[in-house]
Amino acid sequence: MTRQVVVHPDAVVLAEATAARLLLRVLDVQSVRSPVHVVLTGGTVGIRTLAAAAASPLLTAVDWSGVHLWWGDERFLPDGDPDRNETQARAALVDALVASHGLPEENVHAIAGPSSAPSPEAAAEAYAAELAGFATAPDATVADAGRAAVGSPVLVPAFDVLLLGMGPDGHVASLFPGHDALEAAGATVGVHGSPKPPPERVSLTFGALRAAREVWVVAAGSEKAAQAAAAIAGGDVTDVPAAGAVGTERTLWLLDTSAAAPR
Ligand SMILES: O=C(O)C(O)[C@@H](O)[C@H](O)[C@H](O)COP(=O)(O)O
User: Fold this and answer.
1) Which residue, by CA, sits nearest to atom 4 of ligand 1?
2) What is the CATH number of the domain that holds 108?
3) What residues line ligand 1, using a CB cutoff of 6 Å?
4) Considering its fold, how many domains does the chain have in total?
């Protein structure tokens, strides 16, 4: 499994280039199939990328009526909370796509919070049901989907591109080092005791991440360098969850020079 690495000069260029790359990826896919399934990420670089996409001249070239937006994880917080990944993504890009660029609101597949789900598990279950409704092959299993998930049914679309940020501890989505959620079967998992606030979250599992055609891990800053290097070298997913994020067709690491610096 080869991971491709692209290094940009700084975090600003990283976000701009990732935004352009994302819009081009959607355009490329739209030339051969529809709908297109895109998974968004929370975190600093992820939201900066969406803001850059909002300002891109490529934005209007996309047929947004044929795009579905999903999230790799969500912080289990009330609707509209400023710390929800959904709230930040809507403010940066998604609301404008719905209001002015023909993205149907029903194509925005946000993960429920406590406003409508009694627990992270309930939200995870509802999200899994939503994903299953768009699964590419209803009886598909992702055979190589991480240790515990091997052979479990993972009913999700074959995401055309799945964006992930990475924490300094090597987490991706809400899959943290040494956490039980790393072992979860199925497509989604409720997470408790996250070391990054808030403690309660909902995440795609490794099985769902690995169903994506293309996985892009986007990271900036020297505090990410050690875990980025470990993941790119194919480290143990228990210690470096980002090492388990691979796509079926491509795995791309998009870094700034600080995150790519040797340690
Ligand atoms: O809910 C979240 O916070 C995430 O989705 C998380 O996985 C994030 O992407 C990384 O922690 C990187 O975040 P930064 O880019 O802010 O370091």
Assistant:
1) 42
2) 3.40.50.1360
3) 41-46, 73, 75, 85, 165-167, 171-173, 196
4) 1
